[in-house]
Amino acid sequence: MPTERDKMLAGAMYDPLDAELVALRRRARDLTHFLNASRDADTELRAKWVAELIGVVGEGAYIEPPFHCDYGLHITLGRKVYFNFGCVILDVTPVTIGDNVMFAPGVHIYAATHPIDAKERNSGFEYGRPVTIGSDVWVGGGSIVCPGVTIGAGTVIGAGSVVTKDIPAGVVAAGNPCRVIREIAVT
Description:
Blueprint: H1 4-9, H2 19-37, H3 43-53, E1 56-57, E2 62-63, E3 67-69, E4 75-77, E5 82-83, E6 87-90, E7 95-97, E8 102-103, E9 108-110, E10 112-113, H4 118-121, E11 127-128, E12 131-133, E13 138-139, E14 144-145, E15 150-151, E16 156-157, E17 162-163, E18 171-175, E19 178-183
Parallel strand pairs: 1-4, 2-5, 3-6, 4-7, 5-8, 6-9, 7-12, 8-13, 9-14, 12-15, 13-16, 14-17, 16-18
Antiparallel strand pairs: 10-11, 18-19
């Protein structure tokens, strides 16, 4: 019989009030509290808390506090990923980020979602869709990446964008909803 966490990670409807999930979120809150209270001089401690919080952390990945996430365990960061101040990841399903990705301040990544139907939504159950961001991507400040979205490698997402659908590799995309503005010459 699958656990609520198994259902959650599979993208099926699950109960977020399940005791295991509540404990895992509490763990993430405790670790982000320590991370967010750290100072620049605490780089070794900061790296320790990030390594404990995030499922997979590539070499040179760096998170500026404050940072918030649901679980942290379902996040995979490639090499040299950089999160600027105030980023949020709701990682109820896998959130996979490639190498050399930069997030400007206030970027939110939402793998979590709720049913459209009010009766289903009022049940308290929810679900998620994985988010994948390719290598060499830059996501501009205040952007929101919605559940189930893939952003292709080498793409730039303009500040304030709401990414509701997949964005291909090698483009500049912006807006609400986010759309391709132009292609980028690959070097």
